[in-house]
Amino acid sequence: MKTYAISAAIAALALAVLPSCSPKFFSMDVEMRYPSSSGLDLAGKSIAVAYLDDGTGKSVFDGGLAEGLAQRLEDEYFGGEQEIGIFRMEKRAGAEYGDKDTLVNLVMDTGRDVVLLIGETEFGEPEAGVNEPFAGTFSNADSAYVCTVKMPFRMTLYAYDSMDRRDEVLSLSGSGSSRTLVFNDGGADAKELSAGVWKFMGPAGVRAGQQASGSLLNVWRNESHAVIYYDMSSWEAPSEAAFNYEWKEAVDLWMQLLDTGNIQRRACAEYDIALGCYMLGQYSLAEKWLDRADADYIISLSGALRKRIEERMNQAAL
User: Fold this and answer.
1) Residues 192 and 248 in one domain
2) DSSP letters along 92-137, please?
3) Which end of the chain lies in a sparser environment, N or C, as judged by fewer CB atoms within 10 Å?
4) 146-187: per-residue pLDDT in tens?
5) What CATH number does the domain containing 29 carry?
6) Would you call 304 helix, strand, or coil by DSSP?
């Protein structure tokens, strides 16, 4: 979960028969994490990024791609800590880099759960802009002029998650146009400037890698959930724990409320336990507790929670 907002609205439950001490609920708007738009769920997994080195200046851009991709994923999944390994692979003629065996071998070699391999990047014709004096400070005459060179490119990213039950390689592709500053002495023509762009392509690759990470980042959705409680002292502590998003503590406290002969009250505690398990990512267990709640007493809130649990379980089964 990410950030949260709480609705202070409190309402009585719509139950068929309401005893003198009827259950109530408070609503919580929770921003829940879902897998990335690519379908990969990278949370909690170790990751390696690899790129191909063909011995030419083009590898400078691909190395930048790998660096930018790793940086953005580290920000998203590791709190900015440098936890993603970047690996350089010597490009070999005729090799099938999108092949599953290649990616599985990379998992074995790197010891990571997930491997992201940047395939061979395709480049279009470079286009040199105006070559003009550099306005900043420069160390020598060779850097007195600067020219912006644009170059279209198309990249392919192969992803393999060894912990995903689908056990398949995911291929992602995209295109863009890099803008690279080429420093020179002012005597180069457009053709020479375009030819000399490669050694300056690293920063452009980093930017492209950061942009390419978009389909691998978490997707966040706002969900509204209801926590049931009674105006009884024994229900205060679990309700407060839930209100503070301390779900494990809340579940433990709700468990203590099950020893009662009041089936409606027991069903409400079982519903809350199911909700807590859902928030903790224990979807199968959440379903079992919701089944128990429905078997004891049908609660109108049960249907919405069950739908969300089933959605999560269906995603996990893909």
Assistant:
1) no
2) -TT--TTSHHHHHHHHHHHT-SEEEEE-PPEE---EE---EE-SS-
3) C
4) 999 999 999 999 999 999 888 999 999 999 999 999 988 888
5) 1.25.40.10
6) helix
